[in-house]
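Late entry, adenosine-5'-diphosphate complex.
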Amino acid sequence: MKRDSDMRIAVYPGSFDPITNGHLSILRRGLEIFDEVVVAVATNPQKQCLFTIEERLDMIRQVTAGMEGVRVDTFEGLLVDYVVRQGSNVILRGLRALSDFDYEFQLALINRKLNRNVQSVFLMTDYKWLYVSSTIIKEAASLGGDVNALVPDVVRDKLAEKYPALRRRLEANARH
Ligand code: ADP
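Prediction complete; structure with ligand written out below:
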């Protein structure tokens, strides 16, 4: 049994609007490196989200229920300060294609400037989820695209509550 002070804790921050299989893949792999990963949902009132904070937390809690070492939380304010409050010094982020790099690089540099003790750790996405983002999932779902293989079932059902086109598609699939 590790003592609290020996625990390697990473914070995985994001909007998770909603959580996708891409996020889950990074989380699972993060758990192979760290004893605990805190999934930290950003409560940024400036950012327009489809799902409320409570809905996003609820979905994450449901899909991570069987995963040991996961904690789900919200944060506001400076990420590096939150990371320190969690007894951590690691920010975990996922990288997809080149498009993520610019932004993630900038973010890592500013966070390093703000607190030199906090390290950013990047995991490359699995090729299966290379093109998966919360934004593209929402776009596809709003048009009735079947997002089944890209998000957990709980998330698909919540998307269907928001988007009638997806609801109709799922009902049609169930009839065939
Ligand atoms: P943000 O709102 O900060 O962009 P997101 O909720 O979209 O956060 O994502 C959180 C983190 O998960 C980011 O590091 C992002 O690059 C990563 N991520 C999102 N989708 C994928 C994916 N399909 N594969 C790997 N990493 C991903």
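DSSP finds seven helices and five strands in the chain. Will revisit in the morning.
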